[in-house]
Amino acid sequence: MIEEQTHPAITPPPRDLQRAALRGARQKCPACGEGQIYRAYLKVNDTCPKCGEELHHHRADDAPPYFTMLITGHIVVGLMLTIAMTYDWPNWLHGIVWPAMVLVLSLWLLPRIKGALVGIQWALRMHGFSGEPDEIEIAPEAQLPRG
User: Fold this and answer.
1) CA–CA separation, 115 vs 48, rounded Å?
2) pLDDT tens across 31-41, in order?
3) pTM of the entire structure?
């Protein structure tokens, strides 16, 4: 009689979600907190220059711009309403201040939000951050008209 040996599934230790998100928001590696997460403004390093953690698995896609617009819009619109009800600014000043504020705030927030989302994906072991290869998504063949 052959006995089958089963091994219990080894579960990796949990990763601290809050710490990983904060490290990413500081534009640091979510694993070690020391290496830079970006090699350029929004280009994530393939690996951490300090600890070697693979970072290329991230799939931030459209979420960082969405959250950036959401946060920027709430801040700027709130300030616009407060200023408009409190002070009597000329229209040309409104036309200079608010677009400039939107631009500066968006450019400042975007890499921090993207870094936080990469950190969250790393902590939750999403998209290949688990150490196991991602399943390959196979797209159905396009239906071409026959003629």
Assistant:
1) 13
2) 999 999 999 99
3) 0.80
